[in-house]
Amino acid sequence: MPELLCMLQAVQAPLQIGIPNLPPIKDSALDNLCGLGNPSGPGQYPWVVALYKRGNYIGGGSLIAPGVVLTAAHLVMNISANEIVVRAGEWDMASTSEQFRHEERSVVRVEPHEDFSFEASTNNIALLYLKSPLELKAHIRTICLPGEGKTFDQKSCLMAGWGKRSFQDPYNSSKQKSVEMPMVKREDCQNQFRRTRLHRNFELHESLICAGGQRDKDACTADDGSPLFCALDNDPNRYEQAGIVSFGIGCSQANVPGTFTNVAMFRDYIDEKLAGGTFEL
After folding, report:
1. What global pTM score does this model have?
2. What domains are there in the chain, each with its CATH number?
């Protein structure tokens, strides 16, 4: 992947985003447009954030509002809000001289789902409220959320984060990686898991969806909480979040998908939490 970012803000003429017969979107409005990615390299998926606990990377999340991050509940359970820092606009964790600077915000509140189960990895979703909202720009942007109950069957989607590239790797990826992953039907996913150590009685909970199951195309260790996102049906240049990395059996094994929290199942829940909060979004 070439390390080149085509900065949308730098374009002088209005940009044409999405369907050709729609009017162009002015540059000034682009930063507030959810789910709009950049062509390649740093800032390609500007809603992906890294989470740190006392200076150590622990997993990923997604920016769903300037002051709110969506992640997996298991990642932040038993961690105090004041221990977590969200880093947005990051790409290469090993570099101190990137062209586009990341920004950090402390977390003032951690809100896991009330019915989250660590043992079953069900309702595995949490909201992190930031001390102050992030300023949106080309390499720091929010992701769109799907409508309640939307399905992504037969779609090919993407996961981005800083986890290991393979289960055998000793270290996480320093540069943000992205993996294209096909969605897997619920029945197929459940049957495939029943052939693993989860055994024949495994039941895939309704709060989980599946993707992957192809060799070398999977989320992996330390991708926990990172987003799975798919192109909008009517605009291939923009994305909405389908899932949150939840659990898997190893990484990148053929016919063994990964599981993701079903974001569309929780859309109304997320809206209610944000509408009822007192934080600036």
Report:
1. 0.87
2. 48-142+268-275 (2.40.10.10), 156-264 (2.40.10.10)
